[in-house]
Protein backbone atom coordinates (compact mmCIF):
# COMPACT_ATOMS: atom_id res chain seq x y z
CA UNK A 1 0.00 0.00 0.00
CA UNK A 2 1.27 3.45 -0.90
CA UNK A 3 -0.62 6.56 0.15
CA UNK A 4 -2.14 9.01 -2.28
CA UNK A 5 -0.97 12.59 -1.96
CA UNK A 6 -3.10 15.47 -0.73
CA UNK A 7 -2.06 18.04 -3.32
CA UNK A 8 -2.21 21.37 -1.51
CA UNK A 9 -0.82 23.26 -4.48
CA UNK A 10 -3.73 22.12 -6.66
CA UNK A 11 -6.43 22.94 -4.09
CA UNK A 12 -4.77 26.27 -3.25
CA UNK A 13 -4.73 27.20 -6.94
CA UNK A 14 -8.51 26.77 -7.10
CA UNK A 15 -9.00 28.90 -3.97
CA UNK A 16 -6.71 31.61 -5.37
CA UNK A 17 -8.64 31.62 -8.65
CA UNK A 18 -11.91 32.00 -6.78
CA UNK A 19 -10.44 34.78 -4.64
CA UNK A 20 -9.16 36.59 -7.75
CA UNK A 21 -12.71 36.48 -9.14
CA UNK A 22 -14.09 37.99 -5.95
CA UNK A 23 -11.42 40.71 -5.94
CA UNK A 24 -12.26 41.64 -9.52
CA UNK A 25 -15.98 41.79 -8.69
CA UNK A 26 -15.20 44.16 -5.80
CA UNK A 27 -12.96 46.35 -7.98
CA UNK A 28 -15.46 46.57 -10.82
CA UNK A 29 -18.43 47.28 -8.56
CA UNK A 30 -16.85 49.77 -6.16
CA UNK A 31 -13.36 50.62 -7.38
CA UNK A 32 -11.91 49.18 -4.18
CA UNK A 33 -8.74 47.10 -4.30
CA UNK A 34 -8.10 44.98 -1.16
CA UNK A 35 -4.85 45.76 0.63
CA UNK A 36 -2.78 43.38 2.76
CA UNK A 37 -0.09 44.97 4.94
CA UNK A 38 2.82 42.66 5.74
CA UNK A 39 5.05 43.65 8.65
CA UNK A 40 8.55 42.19 8.81
CA UNK A 41 10.90 42.85 11.73
CA UNK A 42 14.58 42.16 11.05
CA UNK A 43 16.26 40.47 8.10
CA UNK A 44 15.74 36.74 8.65
CA UNK A 45 16.22 35.15 5.19
CA UNK A 46 13.37 32.66 5.57
CA UNK A 47 10.96 35.38 6.67
CA UNK A 48 12.08 37.57 3.77
CA UNK A 49 11.29 34.70 1.40
CA UNK A 50 7.85 34.07 2.91
CA UNK A 51 6.91 37.75 2.71
CA UNK A 52 8.08 37.93 -0.90
CA UNK A 53 6.02 34.84 -1.79
CA UNK A 54 2.93 36.36 -0.23
CA UNK A 55 3.48 39.64 -2.10
CA UNK A 56 3.82 37.74 -5.39
CA UNK A 57 0.58 35.86 -4.77
CA UNK A 58 -1.16 39.15 -3.95
CA UNK A 59 -0.02 40.59 -7.27
CA UNK A 60 -1.20 37.48 -9.10
CA UNK A 61 -4.81 37.88 -7.94
CA UNK A 62 -5.16 41.66 -7.79
CA UNK A 63 -4.63 42.34 -4.07
CA UNK A 64 -2.40 45.29 -3.19
CA UNK A 65 0.51 44.42 -0.93
CA UNK A 66 1.89 47.03 1.46
CA UNK A 67 5.26 45.88 2.78
CA UNK A 68 6.43 47.38 6.08
CA UNK A 69 10.02 46.51 7.03
CA UNK A 70 11.32 47.36 10.49
CA UNK A 71 14.86 47.19 11.85
CA UNK A 72 15.86 44.17 13.94
CA UNK A 73 16.39 46.52 16.89
CA UNK A 74 12.73 47.60 16.83
CA UNK A 75 11.21 47.43 20.32
CA UNK A 76 7.91 45.87 21.25
CA UNK A 77 6.40 49.31 21.84
CA UNK A 78 7.58 50.56 18.46
CA UNK A 79 6.13 47.50 16.71
CA UNK A 80 2.84 47.91 18.56
CA UNK A 81 2.67 51.56 17.47
CA UNK A 82 3.15 50.50 13.83
CA UNK A 83 0.45 47.82 14.10
CA UNK A 84 -1.95 50.28 15.72
CA UNK A 85 -1.34 52.73 12.86
CA UNK A 86 -2.08 50.05 10.26
CA UNK A 87 -5.18 49.00 12.20
CA UNK A 88 -6.43 52.60 12.09
CA UNK A 89 -5.67 53.08 8.39
CA UNK A 90 -8.66 53.10 6.04
CA UNK A 91 -6.33 52.00 3.23
CA UNK A 92 -5.46 48.66 4.86
CA UNK A 93 -7.89 45.73 4.96
CA UNK A 94 -5.72 43.00 6.46
CA UNK A 95 -2.55 42.84 8.52
CA UNK A 96 0.05 40.08 8.63
CA UNK A 97 2.86 40.21 11.19
CA UNK A 98 5.47 37.79 9.87
CA UNK A 99 6.51 35.44 12.64
CA UNK A 100 8.64 34.56 14.39
CA UNK A 101 9.75 38.04 15.45
CA UNK A 102 13.14 38.71 17.10
CA UNK A 103 13.38 37.21 20.58
CA UNK A 104 13.41 40.52 22.43
CA UNK A 105 9.91 41.34 21.15
CA UNK A 106 6.79 40.24 23.02
CA UNK A 107 5.11 38.46 20.11
CA UNK A 108 1.79 37.96 21.89
CA UNK A 109 1.56 41.66 22.77
CA UNK A 110 2.31 42.50 19.14
CA UNK A 111 -0.37 40.14 17.84
CA UNK A 112 -2.93 41.70 20.17
CA UNK A 113 -2.16 45.14 18.70
CA UNK A 114 -3.78 44.01 15.44
CA UNK A 115 -7.44 45.02 15.19
CA UNK A 116 -9.56 41.83 15.15
CA UNK A 117 -11.40 42.90 11.98
CA UNK A 118 -8.03 43.10 10.18
CA UNK A 119 -6.54 39.94 11.70
CA UNK A 120 -6.62 37.98 8.44
CA UNK A 121 -3.86 35.67 9.73
CA UNK A 122 -6.03 34.61 12.68
CA UNK A 123 -3.41 35.22 15.39
CA UNK A 124 -5.24 37.33 17.99
CA UNK A 125 -6.99 36.06 21.10
CA UNK A 126 -10.28 37.22 19.61
CA UNK A 127 -9.74 35.06 16.53
CA UNK A 128 -8.80 32.03 18.65
CA UNK A 129 -11.91 32.49 20.78
CA UNK A 130 -14.02 32.67 17.64
CA UNK A 131 -12.41 29.48 16.36
CA UNK A 132 -13.05 27.65 19.63
CA UNK A 133 -16.59 28.88 20.20
CA UNK A 134 -17.82 28.98 16.61
CA UNK A 135 -18.65 32.65 16.21
CA UNK A 136 -17.53 34.71 13.21
CA UNK A 137 -13.81 35.45 13.14
CA UNK A 138 -10.79 34.94 10.93
CA UNK A 139 -9.33 31.46 11.32
CA UNK A 140 -5.63 30.84 11.74
CA UNK A 141 -4.52 30.30 8.16
CA UNK A 142 -2.62 27.02 8.37
CA UNK A 143 -5.27 25.20 10.44
CA UNK A 144 -8.01 26.51 8.17
CA UNK A 145 -6.00 25.43 5.14
CA UNK A 146 -5.59 21.93 6.55
CA UNK A 147 -9.32 21.41 6.98
CA UNK A 148 -10.09 22.88 3.56
CA UNK A 149 -7.57 20.45 2.07
CA UNK A 150 -9.21 17.48 3.82
CA UNK A 151 -12.61 18.67 2.61
CA UNK A 152 -11.38 19.02 -0.97
CA UNK A 153 -10.50 15.31 -1.00
CA UNK A 154 -13.72 14.26 0.70
CA UNK A 155 -12.01 12.97 3.82
CA UNK A 156 -14.41 12.32 6.69
CA UNK A 157 -13.62 14.21 9.89
CA UNK A 158 -16.63 13.59 12.13
CA UNK A 159 -16.12 10.69 14.51
CA UNK A 160 -12.47 10.19 13.56
CA UNK A 161 -9.73 10.01 16.20
CA UNK A 162 -7.21 12.74 15.45
CA UNK A 163 -3.77 13.20 17.00
CA UNK A 164 -2.41 16.75 16.84
CA UNK A 165 1.31 16.83 17.56
CA UNK A 166 2.13 20.39 18.60
CA UNK A 167 0.29 23.01 20.65
CA UNK A 168 1.36 26.39 19.31
CA UNK A 169 -1.32 29.11 19.57
CA UNK A 170 -1.35 29.67 15.81
CA UNK A 171 -1.26 26.06 14.60
CA UNK A 172 -1.62 23.14 16.99
CA UNK A 173 -4.21 24.63 19.35
CA UNK A 174 -6.52 26.15 16.71
CA UNK A 175 -6.43 23.14 14.38
CA UNK A 176 -7.61 21.02 17.30
CA UNK A 177 -10.45 23.46 17.93
CA UNK A 178 -11.52 23.37 14.28
CA UNK A 179 -11.48 19.57 14.34
CA UNK A 180 -13.57 19.50 17.51
CA UNK A 181 -16.12 21.76 15.86
CA UNK A 182 -16.30 19.20 13.06
CA UNK A 183 -16.99 16.43 15.62
CA UNK A 184 -13.58 14.74 15.55
CA UNK A 185 -12.16 13.25 18.74
CA UNK A 186 -8.93 15.15 19.32
CA UNK A 187 -5.82 14.20 21.30
CA UNK A 188 -3.19 16.90 21.74
CA UNK A 189 0.38 15.59 21.88
CA UNK A 190 3.49 17.61 22.75
CA UNK A 191 7.02 17.46 24.20
CA UNK A 192 5.73 16.03 27.51
CA UNK A 193 3.66 13.27 25.92
CA UNK A 194 5.15 10.05 27.31
CA UNK A 195 3.59 7.58 24.87
CA UNK A 196 3.75 9.51 21.60
CA UNK A 197 4.14 6.44 19.33
CA UNK A 198 1.04 4.86 20.88
CA UNK A 199 -1.02 8.05 20.57
CA UNK A 200 -0.03 8.46 16.92
CA UNK A 201 -0.65 4.76 16.25
CA UNK A 202 -4.29 5.01 17.38
CA UNK A 203 -5.09 8.04 15.22
CA UNK A 204 -7.19 7.96 12.07
CA UNK A 205 -5.88 11.45 11.22
CA UNK A 206 -2.41 12.67 12.22
CA UNK A 207 -1.62 16.40 12.18
CA UNK A 208 2.13 16.96 12.63
CA UNK A 209 2.89 20.52 13.68
CA UNK A 210 5.87 20.36 16.02
CA UNK A 211 8.77 21.72 13.96
CA UNK A 212 11.18 18.81 14.39
CA UNK A 213 12.40 16.99 11.28
CA UNK A 214 10.95 13.49 10.93
CA UNK A 215 9.98 13.28 14.59
CA UNK A 216 6.94 11.21 13.59
CA UNK A 217 8.24 7.85 12.42
CA UNK A 218 6.52 6.03 9.61
CA UNK A 219 6.24 2.85 11.65
CA UNK A 220 3.98 4.67 14.15
CA UNK A 221 1.29 5.41 11.57
CA UNK A 222 -1.91 3.37 11.69
CA UNK A 223 -2.56 1.58 8.42
CA UNK A 224 -5.06 3.54 6.35
CA UNK A 225 -4.58 6.77 8.32
CA UNK A 226 -4.54 10.30 6.92
CA UNK A 227 -1.25 12.11 7.57
CA UNK A 228 -1.03 15.90 7.35
CA UNK A 229 2.50 17.24 7.76
CA UNK A 230 2.45 20.94 8.63
CA UNK A 231 6.15 21.01 9.45
CA UNK A 232 8.83 22.51 7.27
CA UNK A 233 12.46 22.05 8.17
CA UNK A 234 15.81 22.61 6.49
CA UNK A 235 16.27 20.56 3.35
CA UNK A 236 12.56 20.39 2.46
CA UNK A 237 11.94 17.91 5.28
CA UNK A 238 8.69 17.76 7.22
CA UNK A 239 7.90 16.56 10.73
CA UNK A 240 6.93 13.10 9.40
CA UNK A 241 9.23 10.40 8.05
CA UNK A 242 7.56 10.66 4.66
CA UNK A 243 8.81 7.62 2.76
CA UNK A 244 8.00 5.16 5.55
CA UNK A 245 4.70 6.84 6.49
CA UNK A 246 3.54 6.72 2.88
CA UNK A 247 3.74 2.92 2.94
CA UNK A 248 1.18 2.75 5.76
CA UNK A 249 -1.11 5.75 5.28
CA UNK A 250 -4.03 6.11 2.86
CA UNK A 251 -3.50 9.84 2.33
CA UNK A 252 -0.45 12.02 3.03
CA UNK A 253 0.66 15.58 2.31
CA UNK A 254 3.99 16.15 0.56
CA UNK A 255 6.56 18.62 1.86
CA UNK A 256 6.69 21.03 0.12
CA UNK A 257 3.46 21.30 -1.85
CA UNK A 258 1.01 20.17 0.80
CA UNK A 259 0.04 22.49 3.62
CA UNK A 260 2.19 25.51 2.69
CA UNK A 261 0.29 26.63 -0.43
CA UNK A 262 -2.99 26.34 1.46
CA UNK A 263 -1.77 28.73 4.17
CA UNK A 264 -1.10 31.52 1.68
CA UNK A 265 -4.34 30.88 -0.22
CA UNK A 266 -6.41 31.15 2.97
CA UNK A 267 -4.57 34.34 3.98
CA UNK A 268 -5.54 36.02 0.71
CA UNK A 269 -9.10 34.66 0.79
CA UNK A 270 -9.55 36.16 4.26
CA UNK A 271 -8.05 39.45 3.06
CA UNK A 272 -10.76 39.52 0.39
CA UNK A 273 -13.31 38.80 3.12
CA UNK A 274 -11.99 41.73 5.15
CA UNK A 275 -12.25 44.03 2.14
CA UNK A 276 -15.86 43.04 1.59
CA UNK A 277 -15.40 41.10 -1.62
CA UNK A 278 -18.60 39.29 -2.68
CA UNK A 279 -18.86 35.83 -1.16
CA UNK A 280 -20.73 32.77 -2.31
CA UNK A 281 -20.87 29.09 -1.62
CA UNK A 282 -18.67 28.31 -4.60
CA UNK A 283 -15.92 30.73 -3.66
CA UNK A 284 -15.89 31.09 0.10
CA UNK A 285 -14.98 27.85 1.87
CA UNK A 286 -15.37 27.75 5.64
CA UNK A 287 -13.18 25.27 7.48
CA UNK A 288 -14.87 25.24 10.86
CA UNK A 289 -18.57 24.63 11.37
CA UNK A 290 -20.46 24.99 14.66
CA UNK A 291 -21.22 21.71 16.39
CA UNK A 292 -24.89 20.81 16.01
Short structural summary:
The protein has 292 residues and is of the alpha/beta class. 40% of the residues lie in helices and 14% in strands. The chain has helices spanning 8-30, 45-61, 76-88, 107-112, 125-133, 141-152, 172-181, 196-201, 242-246, 259-275; strands at residues 4-5, 35-41, 64-70, 94-97, 161-165, 185-189, 205-208, 226-229, 251-252.
Shape: globular
Number of domains: 2
Tell me which oligomeric state these chains represent.
single chain
Percent range of helical residues: 40-55%
Give the DSSP E fraction (strand runs of 2 or more residues): 5-15%
Looking across the biggest beta sheet, what order are the strands in? Answer: 1-9-8-7-5-6
CATH architecture of the largest domain, by name, is: 3-Layer(aba) Sandwich
The CATH class designation of the largest domain is: Alpha Beta
Main β sheet profile: 6 strands, parallel
Whole-angstrom Rg: 19 Å
CATH superfamily of the largest domain: NAD(P)-binding Rossmann-like Domain
Distance between the termini: 36 Å
The counted number of beta strands is: 9
| pLDDT < 50 stretches | 281-286, 288-292
Domain Tetrahydrofolate dehydrogenase/cyclohydrolase NAD(P)-binding: 140-275
Function: Catalyzes the oxidation of 5,10-methylenetetrahydrofolate to 5,10-methenyltetrahydrofolate and then the hydrolysis of 5,10-methenyltetrahydrofolate to 10-formyltetrahydrofolate.
GO molecular function, one term: methenyltetrahydrofolate cyclohydrolase activity
Subunit structure: Homodimer.
